Amino acid sequence: MDMYLASVLTNMTLIAFLALSAYLVLVVGEVSFGQQAFFGIGAYITASATALAGAHVFWGLLAGAIGGASCALVLGLLTIRLSGIYFAISTLCFAELLRFFLLHLRFTQSVDGRIIGPDGPEGFSNIRWIFENNYQVTDFLLLAVTCLIILLIVLFSLERSPIMLGARMVGNDPILAQSQGLNPTRYRLSFITLSGAVAGFGGGLFALFNTHIEPAMFGVMLGIHGLAYAVIGGLGSAIGPLLGVFLDIGLLESIRSLAAYRMIIFGGLVALLLVFRPEGIISPRLVSHLKSRWRNRHV
Amino acid sequence: MYSLHGIGKSFGGIDVLTDISLTLKPGQRLGITGANGVGKSTLINVATGFLKPDSGHIQLNNKTLTHQPAWAFAQAGIQRTFQSTRFLITANLGEQLLLAARAPESKRRLAKLIELSGLQASLHLFPDEIPLPMLRKAEVIRGLAASPEVLFLDEPSAGLTAIELDQFGVFLQQNLGQKTALVVVEHRFDFMLMITDSVVEMQLNRGLVEKGTDVKT
Predict the structure, then answer these.
(1) Looking at CA atoms only, how far is residue A211 from chain B in angstroms?
(2) Which of A166, A178, A181, B194 has the smallest number of Cβ neighbours within 10 A?
């Protein structure tokens, strides 16, 4: 496979984790501008676990996911009484707070003459797992895609269970959800925590693939992109955010003649979609409609 | 047995409910009438846990529910409908009804209720594609599926014609079951007489006043 294509596809796969995490928060009716924080936490934790502590990559990624989930749970608990714009602002503040924390985080070690560990604004260099294990770009792509497929299988089985419908009800109409015996707080906290795990895991993969991470990578724009992918892709299914990622990174960023105009086209696309398809391309209604048609044909 | 004891509720110094008490036996059918603004909807909201009373307590089978959240009321078997029907518009009706019937027994009951109501043809439609009389029935079915202790109907007649309301009343009578107590808040007296055993009137600052018990006979 062409190296360029492989690295674009890997990039898409990694950002898909971020978009899916934004999707999970949107499903329960909240907008988060802070998913990049969980992505960053996962990246730093996985990097520290593998490069500093010498842990196996599996444990490194797991620790990243757990780290992301715990921070998301804490943020969820702190913002339990906030919703709408107040929740959105809190997530943004949290993410910026974390970024400033990372800017001041210094814990370096010298291993074989290389400086390893977070070094303030310089970031975390020499995450050499990918070289030590002789991973080519295509090998890593395979690993990332496998992880993404496993995540999608989990999300799709969630989608088929009443849990997702309950979450959508909590997101659309909390009063209705309560009248159906659903606890909105529990749904919100679980989905925010899950979103933290997904972003943290993706961040871990990102750190391994990039071999160098720095606080500036986890700025607001990253989170806004993740959110935009979920919004334009649609909240009907986990496929929606993937479609959003594909449209932006797959079409706009990778087609070099378009790359210079990427933000203009992407911004315009978001505006158009919000006017003509406010629920995204793959909207909940579309999915519900297709599901019932499919069922009718097979009954 | 469901009961309200000395319920009081005020909004910004204006007393809406003062010392309201009410006891419902299984299978009892109670109607509540009253002028606009006397607090009928507030009473339903307090009785179903959507508003917290300032004083008094709420009990269901010797369990105190007063300070529980609304979803705990629903789980305990206190169901309600809304003045304007409330559904999730992004999912079809069938999926939503299934969400209300989680136990296998409730699923069977739901299937039977759907058949009796003639809603089968609407199950794959979205709530905003279904006519109001059907939605009212669907809302009642959703409430009845889990065989609740009490079902509160908040102005079910709103938006229905006389004939539709009559059909709705017949459907209610036939499907409420022995266990479920019913409370209807309504302006349409003919409808009240049809589906309730007794009617009380809610009056400003006087609470619930008996209004011709057993009006039927």
Answers:
(1) 43
(2) B194
